[in-house]
Amino acid sequence: MNPSQLSTRERILEYAGDMFGKKGFKSTTIRMIAQEAGVNVAAVNYHFRDKEGLYAEVIEDIFSKGFARFPSLDPKSDPAMSAEDRLKLFIRGTIYRILSPEGWGGLNGKGRLIAREMMEPTSAFTQVIETYIRPHKDRLVAILWEIVGKGARQEDILLSVVSILGQCIYYVYATSIIERVAPEYTPVENNIDKIIDHVFRFSLGGLENIKADKEIA
Amino acid sequence: MNPSQLSTRERILEYAGDMFGKKGFKSTTIRMIAQEAGVNVAAVNYHFRDKEGLYAEVIEDIFSKGFARFPSLDPKSDPAMSAEDRLKLFIRGTIYRILSPEGWGGLNGKGRLIAREMMEPTSAFTQVIETYIRPHKDRLVAILWEIVGKGARQEDILLSVVSILGQCIYYVYATSIIERVAPEYTPVENNIDKIIDHVFRFSLGGLENIKADKEIA
DNA sequence: GCAAAATTCAAACAAATGTTTTAATCATAT
DNA sequence: ATATGATTAAAACATTTGTTTGAATTTTGC
Questions:
Q1: What confidence tens digit (pLDDT) does each residue in B85-94 have?
Q2: Do B173 and A133 touch (CB under 8 A)?
Q3: How many other C-beta atoms can be found within 10 angstroms of the C-beta atom of residue B179?
């Protein structure tokens, strides 16, 4: 839909998301948002009460749309599938949600706002953690138990969750550094499928090592 | 040294680092820094010209001290060592620099400021990338070539660099989320050595898989 | 078509904040 | 000891910015 035919409220929500992501909460001024969205400054307070109210709705909006488009449990996955294949789908969904333009668009889009929230959660984020992030993590935990086997230690599972999600999220988080330090590297946005393959292979190898160590011990 | 016997200039540098990390550049006010450091507001402009000048010096100060204390090339490492052992030392140095109290102290210390800069580099960071980060990455690249073998593809090496550094850095970046989503997990700060072991094992397994794929292809 | 409600708008307000000014104080070298 | 320069201090300045106000305009329900 053409932005100009969205309602005032929706236009504010849209531009505020970009702006909060690009500049952070404090550096983003209501006047900037209003100008970008082509609305009056007072419209923000009218529709969202205050700047914090707007921010909270932006966060909720981004997460609900992101997980709706790329659920943590891929609809193509099926209980009969091997745990390895489900891991691949899980990684694919996560990376597409974070990096792709249909998702959060990486560091140049809403992804930047998410990155800020992960580092420094605001009160608006508490709800999001319970609704989206915890179930997401729990699904990964379940997959890893299957791959590593019941005899594994919970600690190793949790550390592996962090290792896998860390790889995925680091691609958003460090895009600008990656591009500066390794200019020979094709921009992240054009490489999503290669990144997915790599993270999957790398993680599967990592899990093999965790499994092997368990059996030795 | 007792903070109260540091020079005005050094006290400002110290408290500004914490404050910029905790609240970000924009939200940190000169008045807050001055109050914490117990100096007059005008002292900041006197010693550092303006807020940006102060910020630039804070960044340079943090990186020079961090890499001096935990160099990317561990002094204990030795060319005769196996590449695997050097990888372990590399990961150890990186994680200690980022997480330990003698280093950047993770998300509760200067680590937070670094995390901000990685996501959104300021002009003060450009210098730091060339001086510290690029050589750091180049050392890891060299180690990985040895482990994976000369026949590997450059692309796989670069992706693996991101996978390994991503795991290390994610522990700073996501500490607060980790603690909220997995309360059963012991706080990151008390777990540094376990994290190092895990990242090393996981990464070695990942690299095995990269190596194996290369040989198949 | 009209009254009531919802929305938009321009202007003003009040607080926060980076910076400058000017005078006072301290340190240092002769 | 004193003069010179470096440092600190309090106050004022200029700008930015979130929010409110009250009138104008548009939309909605009947």
A1: 999 999 999 9
A2: no
A3: 14
Among the partner residues A180, A198, A207, nearest to B129 by beta-carbon distance: A180
Chain A environment of B217 (Cβ under 8 Å)? none
Rounded-to-integer distance, Cα A47 and Cα A33, Å:
13
On chain C, which bases lie within 7 A of the protein's CB atoms?
Answer: 7-12, 16-22
Angstrom distance (rounded) from CA B99 to CA B66: 11
**Alpha carbon B115 to its chain's center:** 8
| Region of poorest pLDDT, from A164-168, B151-155, B211-215 | B211-215
Contacts 24+ apart (CB under 8 A), A25-34: A25/A51, A25/A55, A25/A116, A25/A122, A26/B24, A26/B26, A26/B27, A27/B26
In contact, B166 and A171? CB cutoff 8 Å: yes
For chain A, which domains are there?
1-49 (1.10.10.60), 59-216 (1.10.357.10)
Tally C-beta pairs within 8 A across A and B: 169
Q: Is residue B194 classed exposed, middle or buried when 0-12, 13-18 and 19+ CB atoms within 10 A define those classes? A: middle
CB of B3 less than 8 A from some CB of A: no
Q: What is the pTM of this model?
A: 0.89
Q: Do B176 and A134 make contact, defined as CB atoms within 8 angstroms?
A: no
The nt closest to A41 (CA vs C1′) is C9
- Compute CA B43 distance to the chain's CA centroid, rounded to the nearest angstrom: 30
pLDDT digit string, tens, across residues A118-165: 888 888 898 999 999 999 999 999 999 999 999 999 999 999 999 999
- Rounded distance in angstroms from the CA atom of residue A4 to the C1' atom of nucleotide D16: 29
**So what's the pLDDT on residue B3?**
43
